[in-house]
Design goal:
Ribosomal Protein S5, domain 2, alpha+beta, about 325 residues, 4-stranded antiparallel sheet, 8-stranded mixed sheet, binds ligand DP6, about 35% helix
Length: about 325
């Protein structure tokens, strides 16, 4: 029986938005994330000599079309890079609230990178590079806690690593569900449109270099106000760069929650961030979660702590 790999998803505090190399997913800027504790993907890869192509089951359903093609493309890369001869049966389960619009390629490709190379015992750096080829944000889900993906300049130099001395057990990410449908358009498409056409793209890249420095300093100081401020600003800058090409992910409820958080900021440390979808994620700490949740009673929420990196276990 193939072993199972669990990868937690991660939420970017400083966003990856734009590629210098589309095929290898080398980003135009470094990013920084928090791995979450209770949203994850579990995957097993069973190489079988009798298969004539990769077969992929997601949540018990055999995949076809784009979903299958993306996984097959990744597996072709693994076969070429590591001289694997066989096709595989890939079984994956996304443990996220049903259809929450959060099913993430980050946890999916981090789990697949490890599960497809278990026999090779790759180190974390190599796994991060490999996961990146599947989905950029997956490079960060290899690790626990707070993680930086240094953009690098090529395949060798672009990988994520844990931020030293960043252990912060009180940190919380409150996910606020706005829309449980599939997102309007993929992050890959949106970031390509932005990097090719947005008048604000160069400014985004330049500012994000500074945002990383500010965020790392705030983490070193365990200064939630400083971290949250740059997290929120960075998210708005990312979305502004996208809006400049006439595209957005925000919905009325997204804005409602942003307003609630902004009002609360006068009293407590709460800061919002949004990704390629309308859901809002709110960065805070343990001491202020209850007060925050009191103001979000009409929304479905989920409170996350920092989570572990990749874990491997035997099927029960
Ligand atoms: C907004 O990692 O999904 O979540 O590399 O094309 O697969 P691809 O993109 P993906 O993009 C994530 C974008 C983001 C920001 C982030 O996670 O850093």
């Amino acid at each position: 029986m193939a072993k199972i790999v669990r990868a937690n998803t991660n939420i970017a505090l400083i966003k990856y938005w734009g590629k210098a190399d589309e095929a290898l997913k080398i980003p135009t800027n470094s990013s920084l994330s928090m791995t979450l504790d209770n949203l994850y993907t579990e995957t097993s890869v069973d190489y079988q000599s009798e298969l004539s192509e990769d077969v992929f089951y997601l949540d018990g359903i055999q995949q076809t079309g784009k979903s299958l093609e993306r996984v097959q493309k990744f597996m072709d890369y693994v076969r070429k890079e590591y001289n694997v001869k066989e096709y595989a049966l890939i079984t994956s389960y996304n443990h996220v609230p049903s259809a929450a619009g959060l099913a993430s390629s980050a946890s999916a490709f981090a789990a697949l990178a490890k599960a497809s190379t278990l026999h090779l015992n790759l180190d974390d750096e190599a796994l991060s590079r490999l996961a990146r080829v599947g989905s950029g944000s997956a490079s960060r889900s290899v690790y626990e806690g707070l993680v930086e993906w240094e953009k690098g300049k090529d395949h060798e130099t672009s990988f994520a690593k844990p931020i030293p001395n960043s252990d912060w057990p009180e940190l919380r990410m409150v996910i606020c569900f706005v829309n449980e449908e599939k997102k309007k358009f993929s992050s890959g498409f949106a970031m390509q449109e932005t990097s090719q056409k947005s008048a604000y793209f160069d400014a985004w890249v330049k500012q994000s270099h500074e945002d990383i420095v500010t965020a790392k300093k705030a983490i070193e100081e365990k200064n939630l106000n400083k971290l949250g401020t740059v997290v929120q600003e960075n998210a708005l800058r990312m979305h502004a760069s996208l809006m400049a090409v006439n595209k957005w992910y925000f919905e009325p409820k997204t804005i409602e929650i942003m307003n609630i958080v902004e009002t609360l900021q006068a009293e407590i440390p709460v800061y919002f961030t949004m990704d390629a979808g309308p859901n809002v994620k709110i960065l805070t700490d343990e001491a202020h979660v209850d007060q925050l949740l009191n103001h979000l009673k009409e929304y479905k929420t989920m409170v996350c702590k920092t989570g572990k990196g990749l874990t491997v276990y035997d099927e029960l």
